[in-house]
Amino acid sequence: MKESIRMIAVLTFFALLSGGILGWFNTFTEKRVEENRLKELIHSLQTVTGMDPRTDTYEIIKKEKDFEVYRILSGTEIKAYAIVGEGNGYQDKIRLIFGVSPDFSKILALKILEEKETPGLGARIESKEYLSQWKGKAATGSLKLVKTSTQNPYEVQAISGATISSTAVLKIVNKSVLRAKKIIKEGGK
Amino acid sequence: MNLWKEFIKGWWKENPVFVMVLGTCPTLAVTNSVRNAIGMIAAVAFVLLGSSIIVSLIRKMVPNQVRIATFIVVIATFVTMADRYLAAYYPDLSRALGPYVPLIVVNCIILGRQEAFASKHGVLESIMDALGMSIGFGIALILMSTVREILGSGTWLGMKVLGHWFIPWQVMILPAGAFFVFGFLVWGFNAVNKAFKG
Predict the structure, then answer these.
(1) For residues A165 and B106, what is the distance between their CA atoms, to the nearest angstrom?
(2) pLDDT digits (tens, 9 = 90+) for A84-122
(3) What value of ipTM does the predicted structure carry?
């Protein structure tokens, strides 16, 4: 009996001590982690919409786990929208962000936030050659994948050897464009 | 003299990764670049040193039946601190290492050293043992990641070491490459150990 009380006491003591130390430690790191997240978001917005953090502001229109919409404002004028989308890739989730012109006519730029595709094949969705072609594509939600080089704004060229990853990116963009369009039509101006 | 022996045994003769074959999960998973390996080594060394000191200090007051549970609580506390610290100050590294930092909790090198050493020895010996084992773990990860990064990406710590003529062996940065390098290094370590014993 005595022994079991001692066991409980010792374990409880260490668990409480551990919780206390971690709670105290978290007060230092939590703020930094939040700051890092914000810095990263602003950097991404800059890349995909050309937002100038000194003069432009952004507001959150929608924020869900797998979907976010931001409105970039230059004064009161809408400069662009930025959309974060997520979907299944070849191995794990692909998370990306892209900028769209205010009238939803074209895509400004695309950036991959997270991917775990195969190095050398699917991971080439992060390469400049692939990403640069997204500039100026139609933001209609009806983009198609083609195998050959294309200038058509309704078509995107797939990466050879990485059809699944290319299709995944395309699907995420199409789906997110339609979803964002609907939200902005209903809620935002 | 005895302390020195505790310190250097982990480097080679009792190398935790290649001779005792513990902690192979991070060894295989995060050695695709030297930078990731260094982050992992720092995190493991911090956790190992911290938990060895605490476990060695409390070894007499912990009842035998709950010792493993208590050790795990101590280890998990240090791991969580390391994880939060990396997320706050080295966000890129934290993202690259992903779940492998929290997984240090179940790294057998750490629990193994508490059970086999720190819970039976004084603080000073435990510190020496933890430092030595961390160095052994470090040697293993640096060797693995050096081979894999040079052959798999043509770089070392991000610096280009092989010219344009070199076509990276993609397989080396994939999981299969980790097993190839690991197999060769285990063979090498044990062959040398055997040769010196005889």
Answers:
(1) 33
(2) 999 999 988 999 999 999 988 899 999 999 888 887 788
(3) 0.80
Answer whether B170 sits within 8 Å of A119, measured CB to CB: yes
Hunting for tokens 């690991």 — which residue is that?
B182
Instruction: Give me the phi and psi of B142, to 5 degrees please.
Output: -65, -40
Helices (H), chain B: 2-8, 24-29, 34-58, 67-89, 91-97, 108-113, 123-153, 175-197
Between chains, do A3 and B61 touch, taking CB under 8 Å as contact?
no
Tell whether B81 lies on the interface with A, counting CB pairs under 8 A: yes
Could you tell me if A154 lies within 8 Å of chain B, comparing CB atoms? no
Interface test with A, best of B32, B33, B73, B174 (most A CBs within 10 A): B73
Cβ–Cβ < 8 Å for B101, B86: yes
Please state which of the ranges A3-7, A185-189, B62-66, B73-77 shows the lowest mean pLDDT: A185-189
Give B17's contacts (C-beta < 8 A, 6+ positions apart): B23, B24, B27, B109, B136, B137, B140, B141
- Give the Cα separation of B88 and B151 in Å (integer): 32
Instruction: Provide the number of CB pairs (under 8 Å) joining chain A to chain B.
Output: 55
Structure tokens belonging to residue B103:
């997984």
* Span B25-83, pLDDT tens digits: 888 989 988 999 999 999 999 999 999 999 999 999 898 889 999 999 999 999 999 99
pLDDT tens for each residue of A42-74: 999 999 998 888 888 898 988 898 999 999 998
CA-closest candidate to residue A66, choices A82, A90, A84: A84
User: What residues of chain B, 154 to 183, have a C-beta less than 8 Å from chain A?
Assistant: 168, 170, 173-174
* A18/B77 touch (CB, cutoff 8 Å), yes or no: yes
Comparing alpha-carbon positions, the chain A residue that sits nearest to B60 is A10
